[in-house]
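tool_call: predict_structure(chain=1)
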Amino acid sequence: MLITPPLLWLGIVYIGSLFALLVQSFFSIDEFSGLINYEFTLKTYGELLRASNFDILVRTIAMASAVTIGAAIVAFPIAYYAARYARGKWKAVFYLGVMLPLWSSYLVKVYSWKLILAKEGILNWLFETLHLSWVLEAYLSIPGIGGNSLSVSWTGTFLVFLYVWLPFMILPIQASLERVPPSMLEASGDLGAKPGQTLRHVILPLALPGIIAGSIFTFSLTMGDYIIPQIVGTSARMIGQAVYQFQGTAGNIPLAAAFAVVPIVVMGIYLTLAKRAGAFDAL
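tool_result:
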């Protein structure tokens, strides 16, 4: 009896809404009347392969992959220090530092970064103070990742995504590293392994489930987000923005549903591979 209400919520509200989403993706829009044609067809999924729509899929998956890799690189040394060296009050300071950004408003953080990355922002001022403006200008002139300023570039979008989702990568890695017995590191040293070899052959394989667990959060959250790309970055859309616009201003519910199915399928495949790698043990 106690478990019935959450099961009903999961089965009817959550899974039911996903099923309704899947069904609507098999409908289509009448090109002349603009009304939904309630006949099952794969025409809407075919529209995903059009150049403009396919670019959105590639762009989103590429950004999600870049953010996940970047978060893993930044999070690992932080998590390693917390797991191996932080003790007592310093561990409490670590948790406070990691969790504190999650307690502030999501929109406040995004708009704050927009101001930081703007032409008049503190980052641009820092480059000017250090007489390194030419370095920033040279970087912003690179096609694909640059722009008029960092706040209207894909680099800016990447940095904001990285900042917002970084705690979700740090904590699983830190939990995974805490499970590594110190005796294994000592045994590696006794067998003649150098610190770099111990890191590569002992620590990283044992921390891999935590990295994969963190990547589940960073990858999925980046794929579905539509606020950050709308505030920071170029005018090119990502999947979240496409779903928002097609179901809102455009009124094309079937195409919005088809776009929304893509992250579900991608994450389904990703979660299957992550489960095989033992990532859920580190959650």
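agent: The two ends are 28 Å apart (CA to CA). Proceeding to next step.
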